[in-house]
Design brief:
It contains 9 helices and 13 strands. By secondary structure, the chain is of the alpha/beta class.
Length: 286
């Protein structure tokens, strides 16, 4: 039996016809009560408005529909959006693993596909650890770790004033202020003056490798501490992505005379033809 068509493609065929529907990206991204679809290169935004109205009819938990008109870009890793239907607001509250995240899709980076990795890493945190999330955003890793593990302290750093504002709000919403410190600043500058930590999170693939080098060279992460490094890599297969990424980090660690080992890994997703988003759990050896 053939698999059912993805909802967005099915609705697009109903509203736009089969030819136009074939150009529509299959997946709907739902963040809180906001649905996001992605604009195909050769499809006019106005063509998507009837489809957005139909989404509101069939998804009762969605109150606003937006279209992402650009890929993620810039230091703050933001997309540009246009409102299509429903309430003309871009702020919502997103729920994940029993945690609440207030956010504005136009002002902060959010990727629900990272939800599994948030809880995966949280389950690795040992009681009493000092954890630093260097590209914290609205606090996905920081809040989930604070709620589902028993860290001594969680430090969250982000250069975006909007991200920091929502991160501080999310710390309050989830009542984890007693173990959290939020720093508005540049991750590289903060790392220069940071005391020893047990675990570092680097969830920004574009900057992860550079900061990894600084953290191990300056011995910011304790002996036997763990660094969760995110990396975009090109590889033919998913398994190869981890191998390619690990070779990069191994070369950098050798260049500064620090030994590391790969404890575990996770491939978050495909981000393009033969391009992957991989997460490496790297243990810093004595």
């Amino acid at each position: 039996m053939a698999a059912d068509k993805p909802l967005l493609r099915k609705l697009a065929e109903e509203v736009l016809g089969r030819e136009a529907a074939s150009k529509i990206w299959k997946r709907i991204e739902v963040i809180g009560d906001i649905a996001i679809i992605r604009k195909p290169f050769d499809v006019d935004v106005d063509m998507l408005r009837p489809l957005a109205e139909r989404l509101l009819e069939v998804l009762p938990y969605v109150n606003s529909v937006w279209v992402a008109t650009t890929p993620v870009r810039g230091q703050k890793r933001l997309r540009e959006y246009m409102h299509l239907a429903g309430e003309p607001r871009s702020e919502t509250v997103y729920k994940e693993h029993g945690c609440l995240f207030a956010l504005d899709i136009r002002r902060v980076y959010i990727s629900p596909v990272l939800g599994y990795d948030h809880i995966r890493v949280a389950r690795m945190v040992k009681p009493g650890e000092v954890v630093c999330n260097f590209f914290a955003g609205i606090g996905g890793y920081s809040i989930v770790i604070s709620k589902h593990a028993r860290p001594d302290y969680v430090i969250s750093v982000d250069i975006s004033s909007d991200a920091v504002r929502y991160l501080r709000l999310n710390v309050e919403l989830n009542r984890v202020g007693h173990v959290n410190e939020v720093i508005h600043g540049d991750a590289f500058e903060v790392a220069e003056v940071m005391d020893r930590i047990d675990r570092a999170l680097l969830p920004c693939p574009e900057l992860s490798l550079s900061l990894f080098k600084e953290l191990i060279a300056e011995k910011v992460v304790r002996c036997n501490g763990v660094i969760h490094a995110h990396e975009f890599v090109e590889a033919d297969r998913k398994k190869q992505a981890v191998e390619v990424a690990y070779r990069r980090y191994l070369a950098v660690s050798k260049s500064v005379g620090i030994a590391i080992t790969l404890e575990s890994s996770h491939v978050v997703r495909s981000v393009g033809p033969r391009k992957w988003h991989a997460v490496l759990d790297l243990k810093v050896l004595c």
